[in-house]
What we know:
2 copies of one chain form a homodimer.
Chain A: H1 23-41, E1 46-47, H2 49-56, H3 60-70, E2 74-75, E3 79-81, H4 82-92, E4 100-104, H5 108-114, H6 118-121, E5 126-131, E6 140-141, E7 144-148, H7 152-158, E8 161-166, H8 170-182, E9 187-190, E10 203-206, H9 209-224
Chain B binds a DNA duplex through residues 1-2, 22, 24-25, 48-50, 58-59, 61-62, 64-65, 67-68, 72, 74-80, 243.
Amino acid sequence: xxxxxxxxxxxxxxxxxxxxxxxxxxxxxxxxxxxxxxxxxxxxxxxxxxxxxxxxxxxxxxxxxxxxxxxxxxxxxxxxxxxxxxxxxxxxxxxxxxxxxxxxxxxxxxxxxxxxxxxxxxxxxxxxxxxxxxxxxxxxxxxxxxxxxxxxxxxxxxxxxxxxxxxxxxxxxxxxxxxxxxxxxxxxxxxxxxxxxxxxxxxxxxxxxxxxxxxxxxxxxxxxxxxxxxxxxxxxxxxxxxx
Amino acid sequence: xxxxxxxxxxxxxxxxxxxxxxxxxxxxxxxxxxxxxxxxxxxxxxxxxxxxxxxxxxxxxxxxxxxxxxxxxxxxxxxxxxxxxxxxxxxxxxxxxxxxxxxxxxxxxxxxxxxxxxxxxxxxxxxxxxxxxxxxxxxxxxxxxxxxxxxxxxxxxxxxxxxxxxxxxxxxxxxxxxxxxxxxxxxxxxxxxxxxxxxxxxxxxxxxxxxxxxxxxxxxxxxxxxxxxxxxxxxxxxxxxxx
DNA sequence: GCGACTTTGTTCCTGCGTTCACAAGCGGCT
DNA sequence: AGCCGCTTGTGAACGCAGGAACAAAGTCGC
Lengths: 243, 243
C-alpha cells in the first residue's frame, strides 16, 4: 500500500474529496465512461460537455455537475480530455482494481452471463461458477468448471470474489445469498425476482426483467390513452379489457 | 374518499387520476405486484401496508402513497385485499392486455431471454425471434423459429409486437432499433450498452449489466476504504480539488 | 351497542436531484 | 499582446420524491 503522508490524511476520509456523490450520478458516470472509451477508440481526444451529454442522453448541465464530483479536469473553451477523464472516472468508480465475479445458478441466464464478454472487457473477470445440479458440477462453462453451491463460501473466500451474481430460481436465492455473504462477498447483483435480506454492510442491486417490461407496459398504455386506437384503459366496472 | 371540487368524483380510474404517477412509484408497484401474487399463491388474502412494505423492501408510508395512486382499495383497521390490489395494480400498469415480445439477437443472452419463463408467466409472451446469422434462421429456440432481422418490420406489425428486446452487439443495435420502430414497436428494452436514438413516442429502457457492476464497485470501494487490502483509491493529483 | 385499537389515506415538511443561468477561465485569432 | 468567443464550473431556484405524523374510518372485543 503506497500510502503517502499518513499524517496529513490520517482519517482516510479526506482522501476522498468526492465526499458526496449522488447515487444517480454514479450510474451516469458509468455511462459516460462507456461513451468515452468508445470515443477514444475512434480517436477522439477531446469532447465538450454538450457532445458527451448528447451521446449519453443527459442534460449537459447534469453532466458537468456529475463530472465536478470527479474533479475539475476540463479545459474551458475546449472541453474534456477524454483519456484523462476516463482515468479519473475509473478511479472514482474503483475500477483501478479488478473485481472478480462469481455467477450462481447456471441456467439459461447464468450461462449467458458466464459467457458475457462485457464483464471481463470491463475489468470484471468471472472466476467462479456454482450450481446445485450434480450434472453440471465440473462441466466447464466458458472455460470455467462449475462448482457446487455448498462450496461457495470456501471458493469465494479463496478466489477473493468481490461480486456475486445470483441467477437462481426464487426459492434458492436467499440461501445462495447467505452463502455468498459467508464467503465474504459484499456486493450482489440479483436477477431473482425477490427482495433479498442482507446485513447492512452488503450492497444488493436487483435486476428484474419482468419489472422492466411492466414499466414499459405502463408507459405504453398511458401514451396510447385517447389516441383513437381504443380504450386501452377502461373504466373500472367493465369486466375485462378485451382488445 | 373525499369528493374534490375538481369536478369529477372519484370512481377511481376513469378520470385519469394517474395523471401523475411518479416514475419511481411505477417501478415499485411492479414489485408489490410480484410480492402480492406470491402471497396469494400461499393463500394470503389480506395484507397490511407494514407487512407488504417489508416484503418489498420499502417504507410503509411510501407504499401507502404508491397505492394511493392506484386508488383507495384498502380497509382501515384490516389492510389490503390482496386479490383486489393485484387486479387494480395490473390495470394501472396496463397488464390486463397482453404484450407480445420480440427478441432480437439470439446470442447467449438472447437465447436466455427467449426461454426466460418470467416473461410469459407475467403476461409477456415471446412471439418473435430475430437474428442476422443465416445459420440460426429457421432454427427453433424455445419452440419459436428465428427469423431474419430484415423481416422485423413485417413480422412485428403482423404479430402486433408491442415490446422489442435488443440483445445484439453494439454496432447492430441502432439499426435493429429502427427496424423495430418501423414495425410499430413503441417500447424497447435495450441490453446493448449504447444510448439509442429514437423518436419521441418511443420509450426505451436500458439494462446495462456492466454499469450495474460498476455501481457495485463504487460502493465496495467506498465502504472498504482503508481496509489494508491495497490502494483501492489512490490519491488524486497533488492539487486536487481547490475551491 | 359501544369503546378501543388497528390501519389506512393524506398532509406537511425536509432533503435531494436536476436544471437554469452566469461568471470565470482558456485558447485562438488578428 | 490583447481581444473575442467558447466552454467549464458552480451558485441558486425549482420540482419531486420520501418520511414522519396525524386524522378518518372501520373492525374486533366485550
